[in-house]
């Protein structure tokens, strides 16, 4: 699961070496803050034969009812009609400094790369009600995440970004990969007063 992530002010600087174009939508994204569903975030996308940094709304509106779809399971995304166009033709990468997850006791943890570099979350987008919206892919949690939650974002290595964005032949292979190990931190450690 991924429901809140953080983008730092230096994110655009870090993205400049990956992109050939930064569009006007990227400039509208407010940085140095947590990104929640329906917020606009930075995404990398393929267009005009190059990687572009853009800005886009997070979440597909739910057809019947309120709320938004923010995640899709990597294991079954290719089979879902709602996601078919996006995953096949409009893959995206969502850069994040870190993301948060809560365990069953509602304790909040921060997850980031060991080298504190950018996390590249795999996703896709589509045009919904005349607005482009993106979804973040999730997969089964690895050892660094499992104690907190059973799901985690599908994370790409930097050298996979262009292939993910433009080469449909590698899509299913990447959807099956196990994400890298992450560092988990909490603002404070939970303690018990009574021995078990």
TrEMBL record:
Keyword Cell membrane tagged? no
Query: EC annotation?
Result: 3.4.-.-
Q: From the Swiss-Prot or TrEMBL record, what is one GO molecular function term?
A: lyase activity
Its GO biological process terms?
protein-DNA covalent cross-linking repair; proteolysis
Q: Which family does it belong to?
A: Belongs to the SOS response-associated peptidase family.
Which superkingdom? Bacteria
Kindly provide the name given to this protein in its UniProt entry. Answer: Abasic site processing protein
Keyword Nucleotide-binding on entry: no
Question: Which UniProt keywords are listed?
Answer: Covalent protein-DNA linkage, DNA damage, DNA-binding, Hydrolase, Lyase, Protease
